[in-house]
Design brief:
The complex is a heterodimer of chains A (about 110) and B (about 110).
Chain A (H helix, E strand, L loop, with lengths): L3 E4 L2 E5 L4 E7 L3 E9 L5 E7 L2 E5 L2 E6 L4 E6 L8 E9 L7 E2 L3 E6 L1
Parallel strand pairs in A: 2-11
Antiparallel strand pairs in A: 1-3, 3-8, 4-5, 4-9, 6-7, 7-8, 9-10, 9-11
Chain B lengths: L3 E4 L2 E4 L5 E7 L5 E8 L3 E8 L6 E2 L6 E5 L5 E5 L8 E8 L9 E2 L3 E5 L1
The chains are: A mainly beta (about 110), B mainly beta (about 110).
Chain lengths: ~110, ~110
């Protein structure tokens, strides 16, 4: 079983819809990253969080450390949000180890 | 506004050939990383450099070597390329170590080993 599981693997939405992507992990962590990979391959760091909630524009990331779960929400989705969204965790006590999920492919249709 | 620059963007090698992937960042970051990305596998850390003058193995270091030439540059070398090393390679950097800060990624190098 992977240490980091994302769901769904694929998600198709209509423009304007509210999107939720989930990330569950099986180990204690010190922090969690959300990344976005564009269709052309470039990767952008969206959030790093260790508790609570962070917001940037239409993107919101939350984490529940006790439940070992994080969600990435996109409000008022737009076709330009189409990308692969990747969750990655820093296991507690690890030495420079970042464990990645396999990603969620989001397609937003106009 | 270069950020992290990787060269080359594409490369085809024959089994047994050697090559070096170059990475440079202009953000004065302390830490640099090399990842590989394979279909269905997600990103995996090959090597990292917490600071200038230090390098350490990541999850999949076999078949690779690295050099942190200075604070800006971190190169990845394949001494004897194998088909299993066909992948997309990403270099990244961060101001803080231990993955505590956001990582800035290069555009990737698509490497095929025949």
């Amino acid at each position: 079983k992977n240490e980091v599981e994302q769901s769904p693997q694929n998600l198709t939405a209509q423009e304007g819809e509210f999107i939720t992507i989930n990330c569950s992990y099986s180990v204690g962590i010190s922090a969690l990253h959300w990344l976005q990979q564009h269709p052309g391959g470039g990767i952008v760091s969206l959030f790093m969080l260790s508790s609570g909630k962070k917001k940037h524009g239409r993107l919101i990331a939350t984490i529940n450390i006790q439940e070992k779960h994080s969600s990435l929400h996109i409000t008022a989705s737009h076709p330009r949000d189409s990308a692969v969204y990747i969750c990655a965790v820093i296991p507690r006590g690890s030495n420079y180890k970042l464990t990645f999920g396999k990603g969620t492919l989001l397609t937003v249709n106009p | 506004n270069a950020g992290v620059t990787q060269t080359p963007k594409f490369q085809v090698l024959k089994t047994g050939q050697s090559m070096t992937l170059q990475c440079a960042q202009d953000m004065n970051h302390n830490s640099m990383y090399w990842y590989r990305q394979d279909p269905g596998m997600g990103l995996r850390l090959i090597y990292y450099s917490a600071s200038e003058g230090t390098t350490d193995k990541g999850e999949v270091p076999n078949g690779y070597n690295v050099s942190r030439l200075n604070k800006r540059e971190f190169s990845l070398r394949l001494e004897s390329a194998a088909p299993s090393q066909t992948s997309v390679y990403f270099c990244a950097s961060s101001e803080e170590g231990n993955f505590r800060g956001p990582q800035h990624f290069g555009d990737g190098t698509r490497l095929s080993i025949l």
